[in-house]
Amino acid sequence: MLLQAGVDAPQFELPDADMNMFALAAQRGKTNVILYFYPKDDTPGCTMEANEFSNLDDRFAKLDTLVIGVSRDECISHAAFRDKHGLSVLLLSDTDSEVCKEYGVLYDKEVDGHKKVAVQRSTFVIDKRGKIRHALYGVHAHGHADEILKLVKEMK
């Protein structure tokens, strides 16, 4: 099921690249959250997207907005990805796909004649009250961070 603007963001706790637990509920009342789901660490599109979000980190911070990337990669993979590219975004590990399921970002993809479950590149803009303001499925990596920054500015 796809999430829509206006609903409460599904709550979760996931480990980050340093294996510290991050709880979405802890951000309520403090910051807006950009929650973006991506297929795999250190692949061309995912690296581009993470770099673009990281490059705009200061601008998001000025708008009280935390940017978080989620994939099904392990924490160790996230740490290597972050360190290799100097990423400033928080990367969370959803190895059992539970949060991916809650946000409706999984889909069946055919690879070499076999069906495989994959993550659809998707982004959710969550306001300080914990409400989803924008739910964007099937986004393109290049230029996406700029689009999201514009959406956050319009929330002011």
Please, could you describe this protein's structure?
With 156 residues, the chain is of the alpha/beta class. The protein has a single domain, classed as Glutaredoxin. Helix content is 29%, strand content 29%. The strands form three sheets. The protein has a five-stranded mixed sheet with strand order 5-4-3-8-9. The chain has a two-stranded antiparallel ribbon with strand order 1-2. A two-stranded antiparallel ribbon has the order 6-7.
- Named CATH topology: Glutaredoxin
Average pLDDT score: 95
User: What is the H level of CATH, i.e. the homologous superfamily?
Assistant: Glutaredoxin
Encode the helix/strand succession as letters: EEEHHEHEHEEEEH
Largest sheet: spatial strand order: 5-4-3-8-9
CATH class: Alpha Beta
- The number of distinct helices, counting runs of at least 4 residues, comes to 5
Would you count the extended β strands for me? 9
The residue fraction in helices comes out at 25-40%
**Share in β-strands:** 25-35%
What would CATH call the architecture?
Answer: 3-Layer(aba) Sandwich
> Which geometry do the CA atoms define?
globular
Radius of gyration from the alpha-carbon trace, in angstroms: 15 Å
Class computed from helices, strands and strand pairing = alpha/beta
What is the multimeric organization of the chains shown?
single chain
Termini separation: 29 Å
Q: What are the low-pLDDT stretches, counting only 5+ consecutive residues below 50? A: none
Largest sheet: 5 strands, mixed
- Total separate domains: 1
